């Protein structure tokens, strides 16, 4: 009985998994955005020697894609949190003797 | 070399909770170092004499990341390219041929770099805000 309410296949467990997944996605995005630039110069003397331009550096980090993914992650987290809150409220009602 | 310090010395149970804020905070600190280097380059774009002798040389701030912990440390490297020579025999820093060596700073390039650094700083601020609202939401469950 309790296994159904709190076990790995329960709604709360799946929603908790969703929250953890959203947190992990957020961490990955944060790491990519924080490491988007490795130096203050878009065209350095080393790049000029190698014939590279700022385009190649910009291609390595796609801020627009990361920002879109961030907005998506934030919404998923919000939805998971809201559903989990509702699920816990239902459980609380079920386990208490008050109607 | 300036080490980007950990966000705040939180007690252990809180530290784990606050970890999502540390990465974007570190990213913002790195971009601030970049902005300082760019500001120094623009401020010294016309400096033909420095205490070390010769004109100012462009500084480039770079990041070294610890592959194990991911901790970032910034350091400034000097761009070794020679500065531009301008014929101005009346200038106090002119050489025997009447040429003055100006810093190897191109203000347009610096302004482009400034825009990029500002954009990445804004992106880190957005990630920080998202982490903050997610943490706040988690505490409401």
- What structural category do the secondary elements of chain A indicate? mainly alpha
Strand content of chain B: 15-25%
Beta strands of chain B, count: 5
Question: Span between N and C termini of chain B?
Answer: 43 Å
Mean pLDDT of chain A: 82
What's the story with the biggest beta sheet of chain A?
none
In whole angstroms, how far apart are the ends of chain A?
A: 20 Å
Explained architecture:
The complex is a heterodimer of chains A (99) and B (141). Chain A is mainly α and 99 residues long. Chain A is built from five helices and no strands. The longest helix of chain A is centred in the last third of the chain and has 33 residues, at 63-95. Chain A is rod-shaped, with a radius of gyration of 22 Å. The mean pLDDT of chain A is 82. With 141 residues, chain B is of the alpha+beta class. Chain B starts with a strand and ends with a helix. Classes of the chains: A mainly alpha (99), B alpha+beta (141). Chain A binds chain B through residues 19, 22-23, 26-27, 29-31, 33-45, 54, 63, 66-67, 70-71, 73-74, 77-78, 81, 84-85, 88, and chain B through 20, 23-24, 26-27, 30-31, 33-35, 37-38, 58, 60-63, 65, 70, 72, 79-81, 109, 112-113, 116-117, 119-120, 123-124, 126-127, 130-131, 133-134, 137-138, 140-141.
Summarize the structure.
The complex is a heterodimer of chains A (99) and B (141). Chain A is an all-alpha fold.
What keywords describe this structure?
A: 99 residues, mainly alpha, 76% helix, B: 141 residues, alpha+beta, three-stranded antiparallel sheet, 16% strand, elongated
